[in-house]
Amino acid sequence: MEYEIELKLTTTVQAGEFIENSLLPKLAAKVEQQELELSNSYFDTSERDFRLNGMGLRIRGCQHEYEQTIKTAGKGVAGLQQRPEYNVDLGKLPKAPETPDLSLFPAEVWPVGFDHQGAQTQLQCLFVTQFKRSVYLLNFNPQSQIELVWDRGEVRANDKCDEINEIELELKAGNISEIFNVARQLATIMPLKIGLLSKAARGYRLLNGGGQADKTLPEPLNLLTEEQVKHSSRAQLHSLVAKRLSRWQKLLNYFEMQPSQACWHEINTVWQQLSLVLAQCCKQGSDNSQSLHCAMQDFQHQWQGVVLSGAGNSQTATPSHWHAAVEVLTGSSALLMQLAIMQYLVEQQAV
Fold first, then answer.
1. Angle at 174 between CA 278 and CA 189, to 5 degrees
2. Least C-beta-crowded within 10 Å: which of 22, 81, 98, 217?
C-alpha cells in the first residue's frame, strides 16, 4: 500500500516548455526525466458500487506492461488529495486483461460489508483515458523528492470526450510544504488553475452527461456573522475555511465558463465570508499565518480594483467588466491565495 499525496493543477498551454525552460533551471534539485504513453481503463459495477464507496479501480498499460490499481477514499483540501493506493504489477502481457482481478488486492482494501467477490462478476469497463506523460522527478536532497508530471490527452466515455491538460505534483519523500513551494513557482510562470476533479471523476461525469462546465451554480452556504466566527474553535474555523474555499473554487469554474450577475454576487459573498474566517485564523497565529495574510492582501488588492470598476453593478456591467473579473479570478494572485489557504489548512491538520 502506498499513501498518495498529490496536488493537481490544470492548464491551457504546452506546459513542458515552461517547466523545462523556466522552472527547472531555478530549482535546486537533480532532475530525472522520462516520457511515457499511458492507457487506462476504469471499472465499476452497473450499480457504481466502487464509486459509492469512494474507490477508483483501473488497469493501466504502458508498452504492454500492465498494473491494476485501486484508490480508496482519503481526505482532501481543495485540489490536494491524500489517500491510500494499492497497486498490483501484472507484468508484460500481449494485451490488457479484460477486468481487474480483485483477489490480488489485500483484504484491508475493502470497506466493511463490501462484497468484492460479488463485485468481481459484475465488473465492466466504463471509460478510458489515454495520454502522454512527461515525468520530472525532482530530487532536492535524499529526504526530499517530488514527482512532477505533465499529462495531455483525453478522457473518453461512450461517444463523449474531455481534454486532459494537467500537472500533478506528488510527494514521494519529505515535507508536504515542498509541493506548495513548487506549485507557487509554477504559478508565476504559466497560467494554472487548481484541478478539482481526478481523471476518474471526470470519466464518471461524462457518463452522467456532464462536460467541462458545470451547468448549475453550487448550492449556497449559510452566511456567517462576526460573532459566530469569533466564538468558533480552531477546528471549527478550519472546517469553515475548507467548505468556503471549495465553494469559491467551484464558483470560479462556473463563472469562467458562464459569467453572470448571480454568480458574480455569490463569488463576492463567499470571498467576504472566507476573508472573515481567515482573518480570525490569522489572529490565532501560526507559523504560516503571515504568508497567508500576505497572499490574501495581494489578491484583495486586485479584486477590489475589479469591484470598483463597476463589474458588480447589474445596470452598468459590460462584457469588458466580466472579462476583467475572469482575468483576476483565474490569475496568479488568485491561485497563490488558494495555495496559501490550502497549505495553511494542511499544516494546521498536522498540529
1. 65
2. 98
147 - beta bridge partners?
A: 137, 170
Query: Alpha carbon 123 to chain centroid distance?
Result: 27
- Residue 215: inside a domain: no
pLDDT (tens digit per residue) in 192-206: 999 989 999 999 999
Mean pLDDT across the chain: 89
Amino acid in the structure at residue 285: G
CA distances to 10, 31, 168, 178, 214 from 182, rounded to whole Å, are: 15, 13, 11, 6, 29
Tell me 99's DSSP state: S
Residue 185, domain member (yes or no)? yes
Sorting pLDDT into bands at 50, 70 and 90, what band is 317?
Answer: low
Eight-class DSSP state of 22: I
- Does residue 144 carry a pLDDT above 90? yes
Residue 188 and residue 276 share a domain: no
Whether 82 is in a domain gets the answer yes
Where residue 259 sits, what CATH number does that domain have? 1.20.120
Phi, psi of 274 (to 5 degrees): -60, -45
Strand 65-71, strand 56-62: pairing? antiparallel
Judge whether 316 and 304 are in contact, CB under 8 Å. Answer: no
Tracing cell 475589479 back to the chain, one arrives at 306
Coil vs helix vs strand at 174: coil
